[in-house]
Amino acid sequence: MPRNSLKTPFIVDLPKTGFVPWNLAETWEPEQWLTKLFGLYKAPVIIQSRGNQVYSIGMLWAIIQIRSRAILLTGVGIFCSGLVHADPQNYIQILYDTSAPTITELKSDFGYAVYIHADGKRILLDTGTDPDVMEHNLTTAGVDVNELDMVVVSHNHYDHAGGLKRIRTLNPDVPVYLPPNQAFAVDGEIIEDHLQVTPNILIVRGRTDAPTAGISDDLSVVLRSRSGPYVLSTCSHSGVEQIVARAAKLTGEQVYYFSGGARLVNRPAGDTRLVAEALQKHQVQVVSPSHCSLSHRVDRKFREILGEAVVSSQLGKKIEILLAQ
Question: Are residues 100 and 31 both part of a single domain?
Answer without folding.
Answer: no
